[in-house]
């Protein structure tokens, strides 16, 4: 049995919330909600909190099994259908994140390297991490996500003199509609934290871990977005492809360290690679739970290679990735809000009498 | 210059070769699911690289779901 500490679990959840969101959403949020974009993350987190609470309640009903396993065991048909929906959701997330990080690397670091070469290098790393299982993922998170958190938390100090708080005014001048539009774009990203209760047992996962992961991830995103709005301004943030990268480029620590962005990217790339690997591991793990004869470890490489090819098929370029953020929430409502609610209402462990009855039936069958 | 078919054969062939022992010792279901993934990936790679106007699932979804999106 692989052992994960509460800290690792929380950090993995934070990573799911934070890592992909920080490069794909800030520009769109600034474009939609303008100077009020900073309100979007807390509102979205509050809606996701309800789903986490629902899943934590269901998870607590099955202390010795993970949620997906107990669901498939309790309701074989409906459970498999839900598993299929979650596989599809996290596979698209995996494909989208993979393409996003390939484009990011191509634009910021390796402009003359073909996308396919960057993609192959990434997918080899992702497959290697995902094959290691949850312990490997947890250790990778410890290794790279903690330094990334320290860097993000230190950004307000490093950029303090550039901050202009009046860029955040006027507040709510166009009403709540732009905020709600921002929430529409954001909830599928922050809702990815729901992967945690589906993977870990009721003993390992508790509501407070999910809560901490969500709050910490939202705090990190909020720091970056507020800094974007107050340092770069609303108009520039909305027009950059990667405003957070531009933000970090504003930092100059003495004369010899004027490329602070390279240090940050060097920490960030392994962190998002781990996040993508977590998605790949989840997909293969749930496939195995749906069909117990399959080996999750052996499927990681083929599923990973297919996701690389799918990332080039799904998205023609980076612009299409951003456009998809408008459509994707409509499909994400089911896995993020509907499934947790349905599980809360309908999934309960077998009653003792029912269990005894089924055991007797099994015994009879064996005897005959 | 390598053609898309050569590229896909090379990459998928290398992947299967590296995983050969593991797949041989795995169950039949795992083996055939893995081969199906590799075959699909190779076919898709060739298709994307050779066809000029590739129909993309995301574009299709945007067209179909666009009218139901409640926000601009």
Features:
heterodimer, A: 368 residues, mainly alpha, 17 helices, 0% strand, globular, B: 72 residues, 75% helix
Provide the structure class of chain B.
Answer: mainly alpha
**CA radius of gyration of chain A:** 22 Å
Helix share bin of chain A: over 70%
Q: Uncertain segments of chain B of ≥5 residues (pLDDT<50)?
A: none
The largest chain-to-chain contact, stated as pair and per-chain residue counts, equals: A-B, 34 and 38 residues
The DSSP helix count of chain B reads 3
Beta-strand content of chain B: under 5%
Q: Judging from the principal axes of the Cα atoms, what is the shape of chain A?
A: globular
Question: What is the string of SSEs of chain B from the N terminus onward?
Answer: HHH
Spans of chain A of at least 5 consecutive residues whose pLDDT stays below 50 are none
The gross shape of chain B turns out to be flat
What is the terminal separation of chain A in angstroms? 36 Å
What oligomeric state do the depicted chains represent? heterodimer
Q: Could you spell the SSE succession of chain A in H and E letters?
A: HHHHHHHHHHHHHHHHH
Which range best describes the helical content of chain B: under 10%, 10-25%, 25-40%, 40-55%, 55-70% or over 70%?
Answer: over 70%
Largest sheet of chain A: none
Mean pLDDT of chain B: 92
Structural account:
The complex is a heterodimer of chains A (368) and B (72). Chain A is mainly α. The longest helix of chain A is centred in the N-terminal third of the chain and has 33 residues, at 76-108. Chain A has helices at 6-18, 21-24, 26-33, 40-61, 67-74, 76-108, 115-131, 133-159, 177-190, 195-199, 207-232, 234-239, 243-249, 260-290, 296-314, 318-346, 352-367. The mean pLDDT of chain A is 91. Chain A starts with 5 loop residues before the first helix and ends with a helix. With 72 residues, chain B is mainly α. Chain B contains 3 helices and no strands. In chain B, helix 1 packs antiparallel against helix 2 (28-50). The N and C termini of chain B lie far apart (45 Å). The interface between A and B is large, with 34 and 38 residues.
């Amino acid at each position: 049995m692989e052992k994960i500490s509460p800290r690792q679990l929380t950090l993995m959840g934070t990573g799911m919330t934070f890592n992909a969101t920080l490069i794909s959403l800030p520009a769109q949020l600034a474009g939609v909600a303008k100077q009020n974009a900073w309100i979007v993350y807390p509102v979205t987190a509050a809606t996701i909190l309800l789903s986490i609470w629902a899943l934590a309640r269901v998870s607590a009903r099955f202390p010795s099994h993970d949620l997906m396993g107990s669901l498939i065991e309790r309701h074989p048909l409906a459970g498999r259908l839900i598993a299929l929906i979650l596989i599809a959701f996290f596979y698209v997330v995996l494909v989208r994140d993979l393409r996003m990080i390939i484009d990011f690397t191509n634009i910021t670091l390796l402009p003359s390297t073909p996308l396919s070469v960057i993609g192959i290098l990434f997918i080899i790393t992702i497959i290697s991490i995902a094959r290691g299982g949850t312990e490997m993922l947890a250790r990778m998170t410890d290794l790279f996500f903690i330094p990334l958190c320290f860097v993000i938390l230190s950004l307000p100090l490093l950029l303090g003199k550039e901050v202009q708080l009046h860029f955040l005014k006027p507040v709510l001048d166009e009403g709540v509609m732009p905020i709600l539009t921002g929430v529409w774009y954001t909830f599928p990203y922050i809702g990815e934290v729901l992967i945690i209760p589906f993977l870990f047992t009721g003993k390992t996962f508790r509501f407070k871990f999910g809560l901490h992961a969500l709050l910490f991830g939202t705090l990190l995103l909020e720091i970056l977005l507020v800094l974007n709005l107050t340092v770069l301004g609303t108009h520039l943030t909305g027009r950059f492809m990667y405003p957070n990268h531009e933000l970090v480029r504003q930092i100059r620590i003495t004369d010899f360290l004027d490329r602070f962005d390279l240090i940050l990217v060097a920490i960030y790339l392994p962190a998002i690679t781990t996040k993508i690997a977590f998605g790949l591991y989840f997909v293969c793990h749930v496939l195995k739970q749906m069909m117990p004869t399959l080996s999750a470890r052996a499927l990681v490489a083929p599923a990973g290679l297919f996701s690389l090819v799918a990332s080039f098929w799904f998205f023609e370029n980076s612009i299409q990735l951003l456009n998809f953020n408008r459509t994707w929430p409509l499909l994400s409502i089911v896995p993020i809000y509907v499934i947790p609610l349905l599980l809360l209402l309908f999934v309960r462990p077998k009653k003792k009498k029912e269990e005894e009855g089924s055991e007797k039936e099994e015994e009879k069958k064996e005897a005959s | 210059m390598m053609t898309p078919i050569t590229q896909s054969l090379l990459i998928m062939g290398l992947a299967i070769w590296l995983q050969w022992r593991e797949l041989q010792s795995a169950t039949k279901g795992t083996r055939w699911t893995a081969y199906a993934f590799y075959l699909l990936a190779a076919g898709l790679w060739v298709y994307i690289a050779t066809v000029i106007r590739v129909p993309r699932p995301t574009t299709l979804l945007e067209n179909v779901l666009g009218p139901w999106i409640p926000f601009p």
